[in-house]
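User: Hi! I'm a student and our assignment asks us to look at how structure tokens line up with a sequence. Could you show me two examples?

Assistant: Happy to help. In each example below, the sequence comes first and the structure tokens follow. Example one:
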Amino acid sequence: MVVRIPVSLPPLRHKILRSFSVLIALYAVLGVFMTAAVFLASGTSPKLLHVNYDSIAAAQQLHVAWQALENPKGAKDKPAQDWINQFERALTFAEGNVTEPGERDLTKDIRSLWVAAKPRLPAVLPNDSVKLYELLERLVAVNESGMFRLAEDATTLGHRVFLASLLFFFVTLGLALLLADGLAARLARPLKEIAEALREGPSLGRRLKLPEPSSLEVRILTNELTALWQRLGQFQKLNLEELEAQRERLETILASVEDAILVLDNQGQVLHCSDGMLKVLGVRAEQVLGLAWTDLSTNSANYLILRGLLYAEMPPENSVELTVAGKNHVLAGRHRSIATGAGQKLGELYLLHDITEVKQRERLRNEFIGVLSHELKTPLQSLGTASELLSDRKAELTEDTRMLADTIHEDVARIRAVANDFIQVGLVDLHSLQLKLEKKPLNHVLKEWAKPFQILAQDKGVKFEFISLGSETIWANIDVVKLPWAVSNLLANAIRISEPGAMVTLSVTDRAELAQIEIRDEGPGIPAAVQQRMFEPYYQAPASEAGTSNGFLGLGLTIAKEVVEAHEGQLEYFERKPRGSVFRISLPYLVVYS
């Protein structure tokens, strides 16, 4: 739509230009005045201050050179001739750098004293030293006085310029405010009339009545506002259609979510109920949408249960067992409040997530641990009895066999404690592991724990090496029953998968405020697919990849990881090139002050 604008109306540009011309003129005068004032205030040339400073520096050089000539033993870094040359140069510079009254006489006196004393050098008379130091002090004082005087003059001039500028600024500011107020009144009047017309205007889609303009710009503004009003009416219609389309898209997206979804507004009415939730409730959409959630017309058992489960103050997660389509399902309920970016609450969102499979895995785990507990009791009791009998007959054994007997006896006791702990923990939660921490020299106890594995490796033809790096003693807070289990598990695995002649290394060091234990082997390594899940309990990997006969990794790595993390540490796996594995245990390093 082309709008023709009559040119007879006076443009606002002329009015604004005249008013601002006056303001510009006022501040142009202020700018000229401020520039002149700054120029005057900076009239104290820095060169004058620099000249005084140079004279003081020359006096200091004279002082240093004379002291060196007076005391040659204390100034052996230069020969006497160099100090004489320095004195001569500094004196020549001071004679040519005279700026203050009396400064020339002082340099003449210094020159006279120097001429008289120079033939006797390097010998220096005490009277000459006293007189020279006095002249140098006076020379420094004269130049310092000159610098202070220049600074005071500059400060006084700056104060005067500041006061004059401040007075001129306030005067011009008052005039500018008066001019701006008059200009604002002329500009605001037509805009105020337009604003009142808009506030009292008709609804969108109807013609907007605006006051007659008094200038060309206001005419353009009223024409554009009229056209904009018409476009807003069109946009409102389009927005309603777009909102309806977005609502349909949102419902489609929510319908694709596997969780059962329920959305309530602030009054507790149902805004959305996904197909999954309708299936759980056993109702149709028209029986739910737009109705109060707490007063639906259904006697469904699931609805009665969920009505007590899903409420605004419910815990972050709450589970319930329901019968859906003739099958029992365990559903976890979650709640989130829906709010705008400004924090205004819009409603409540409830989700039901099917955790039936998770609960089934937990049940299987508990059954497995129950079986494990039952099966471990008898062999552990027999093994304990055998180890005690073997310990009673240590005198009949060889030295190596006695060490093995001691190791068996200690390990049986440890296995009993660990088995009891892990069976109890497995029935509840691996993360509830309780430790009895003691301050121990980690590198020393590791060496003792490694002894039976040295014999195990020797029997299998595998090379075994223990290395302690870093500090002489590496202290850490550890559970001496549970941490050895994690280390033993990793060492046993490394030796088991190693070929004869391969090397297994157990090392300990302290770095980056951590005590680190590493078990390295030269075995086949662990495939990437298995690495991602090897710490999961009861993970079943392909036998060819897991390195076991049936591919079942069991609880070994899981418990080792939990033991390390219970120590506030971390268990990590790294691949070795071209082959092999590295398991690294990182524990908080304990600093011990002697």
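Example two works the same way, sequence first and then tokens:
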Amino acid sequence: GECHNADFINQHNSHYTDAVKIECSACHADGGKITLAPGTMNPNGTINRDALKIRVPSNANCLACHGVGSVKGKEVFIPDDFPGALINYEGGKCFRVTCKTGEILSPENISDSLMNIKDRDTLAFPWDVHLQREVMCVSCHFTRNDPRRAETRVSDQEHLANDPRKSYSIGKYLYIPDHRLLHADCRTCHTPEKKHDFLTYKDRHFEILSCQSCHVPRLYGPALKSVDETVITAGGGPRYEFRARNTANGKNLNTAYTEGFQPFLLSHNEEKPGAEEITGVKDGISPVNLMIRWHWTDGSGKAVPFELVKGVYLDGKKYRADIINAFDADKSGGIEPHELRLDTKEKIDFIRKRLAAAGVKVPLITGSVEPYRINHDIAHEKSIAPDCLACHSGESRFGAGVELASFRPAGAEMNQSGSAAMSGLLFHLDGTIKTENSKMRLVKDGSVTGRYVFGYSSITWLNVLGALILLMSIAGAAGHGALRYLAQRGVEPKHTNLVRVKVYALYERIWHWGMALSVIVLIITGLEIHYAGSFTLMGFEIVVDVHNFFAALVTLNAGLSLFYHLATGEIMQYIRVRKGFRGEVIVQAAYYLYGIFRGTGHPFEKTQERKLNPLQQLTYFALLNVLFPVQIMTGIMMWLVSIWPEFSSAIGGLTVIAPVHNFFAWLFITFLAVHLYLITTGHTVFSNLIAMITGTEEMEEGESARIARDSLSGVKLPDIIENIRKIALKAIRGKE
């Protein structure tokens, strides 16, 4: 207190609160306490400063309270008192880092631990690569006003975000060190942009995805899966269930076999800006452990104090006689672990009566899901295999079901509103909680809250609608083709005078085939991206780049085409509407539905001035003015989202534009399928195709087209139906 402002430190200290009051020596003295050897006192009664051994907090100081681990040269093992004090109490030796997340804080190799881990001998890499490289806990968890940390320096001048005059001198800092420790982000030390070349969009990944999402591939520590505070064990604590370990209540955790578990990825955003972190992902995706907690509440929803529940079960350190009678199903005289659960209505009613007698109004069992963000156990880069499909596929980590508990107390209600807050972070649980054989699982609904993940996210009804439109179009084309074949079978072709006409210029043909190739590649690569993992042609890392290249090519081709059509006047092919256009549309429809089956010639002559029939003109007008622009604009917007964070925030990310882009892709596939069929409706099956290659086409003389128009102008719907009936009858009789 003579050298430091103790009052200021205590008021600005995350280790000195109403729940816990940690002494200075617990962090700043070797071994957590000050021991004075004989002869260390000076004659004037003061202590020789060399004997105090006051220092910066070591990793051993932090491990004394926060988690399971070891210092260099020591094997890792789980102590007998794990998880120690109740995890809902913030004070004491509670190992809360390990029990909430499964993180082990040690520089040693996993293969050297004393735990029973699957293939342990092959895990010759450290629990945490930072600890192996002697990075201190205080390197990331440092005081807010440390003058060595320029990015956290607070200025005496309110108008300056960072004061270069270093207003916090060493002397001032030592007098009033702010002990509200910060949680530094990876970017405090690392520049990830200089690596990760396999990522297509680096900035986008680093913007919304925490480094731990990939760099913590698996956790082998004893993470809690469920805490059942509705019952009390003989040791006076709740009933614990650990993830990836078939054991409970901290017994035999070293010998219990485990394969570890892969952390669960969830979206989050920061509820209290600046509360915990200084840099990095504030609104994105991070790995978490999900823990479910069962506890008693009263009628108002307020939690029943644990000590009160404990008093219902125990008399001192022993179970009350009536508790043994209620839970001892095999009449052994004691309560076995499998008997210590509220699995019947009788047990529930019994405990409710005892709680009511203790003053609890309307006792109820409530369950809540608590997500705990994972920050430690960073793996060495050589032990991480980059795999885009781990997230970008139908088997994505986002879609993995999560078992929350193997047992659900009878009649328990879930106090789950779709989110849970922890450490200033608001986590969104993507799915609904369901029960199956008394087990609790988080069943994902195929979405990621506020995010669209390529290869995983999709809107089912849009995909179904797009697929139905495509299938109906293919079925219509197939049916139309079958009727053409049946109608023309056995009929001698009519001999008409044909003339060769120059229809398509060289640029038009180059544009057409360039666009056709690009669109086909875009469809194929788009399908591989959208259904990543279902089939692989190029691999996700390559297919995105290929898709982007051809998207840029289509955009460039479309721009050049627009210039060409404007400069040459060819734009009028698509927008000129002649007098009687509506009637021409009806005549052209009658040709496809009636005349084509009867051998009638094309009702409109194709010339350089009029290359499109009325229905083609309508189709290409919609294609070039709606389908192409929407697809190009949404594609550009998706690209901008990936490289421009401000733009992404302004439009809400990909959640809207990506589904629109996907649906219009279905319409493009539908157009391509119908277009390929309609190519065969020329003078011959291949005449239209040859014309687009050579530029010239053999066509009937103009008089034939006029005669065809006259013959089709009076066709009505009954005529069409009757003609189709005759074709079908002809086919049946021919078969007989």
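Here is something you could point out in your write-up. Confidence is low (pLDDT under 50) at residues 87-92, 270-281, 417-426.
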